[in-house]
Amino acid sequence: MESGRQSNQQVRGASSPSVVVIGAGIAGLAAARALHDAAFQVVLLESRPRIGGRVYTDFSFGFPVDMGASWLHGVCNENPLAPLIGRLGLPLYRTSGDNSVLYDHDLESYALFDKDGQQVPQELVTKVGEAFESILEETEKVREENKEDMSILQAISIVLERRSDLRQEGLAHKVLQWYLCRMEGWFAADANTISLKSWDQEELLSGGHGLMVRGYCSVINTLAKGLDIRRGHRVTKVARLYNGVRVTVENGTTFVADAAVIAVPLGVLKANSIKFEPRLPEWKEAAIAELGIGTENKIALHFGKVFWPNVEFLGVVASTSYACSYFLNLHKATGHPVLVYMPAGQLAHDIEKMSDEAAANFAFMQLKQILPDASEPIQYIVSHWATDANSLGSYSYDTVGKPHDLYERLRIPIDNLFFAGEATSIRFPGTVHGAYSTGVMAAEDCRMRVSERFGELDLFQPAMGDESISVSVPLLISRM
Question: What does the UniProt keyword field contain (predicted)?
Answer without folding.
Answer: Oxidoreductase
